[in-house]
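Q: How would the C-alpha cells look for this protein?
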Amino acid sequence: MLLADSAQVADGKLYILGGGWSVTGPDPTPSAVAMKVMVDWHEFNSNHHWELFLEDADGQPVRFDTPDGPQAIEVRGDFSATAPDGVPVGTPVDVPIAVNFGPIPLQNGSRFTWRLVIDGDSLPGATVSFTTRPMAEVVEEA
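A: Here is the predicted structure in C-alpha cell form.
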C-alpha cells in the first residue's frame, strides 16, 4: 500500500503520481491509496472482496456528518485473478487497485491509518498511515 496524490490502474499496472508521502495538509487535498495484492495460484478463479477503512490514531473509524447521519469513510470492491498464459504453475499474480479521494477534511495535527481487509481478514502489512500538519498559527501585528 502506498499513499499518493493520484493513482490509476491500466494494463494491469499501477500508475502513481506524487506517491510515497506520509504527511499532508493542513488543508484538505485530493489523495489516493495505491495497492498491490498478490494472489497465490491456489486462489485463482475465486472472487475476493476487499474493504478499505480510514481510522484515527485510536483505531476508530473516521466519521463525517452527512444528511443521512454520521458516515464512516469506507470503500469496497471485488477482484479475481487467473493464471497468465505461459507462466509456471505456482506463480502468484499481482492485482493492482487504486482508490482516489477528493479533499477529505481531517483534523489537523492528527494521525490516521488506511486499513485494508480482504475476505474479512486484516492482513499483516495491509495498512498505511499518515499525519496531518497542524494549522499554522496566525500572528497579529500590533
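The first strand starts at residue 2 and ends at 4.

DSSP finds no helices and twelve strands in the chain.

Upvote if useful.
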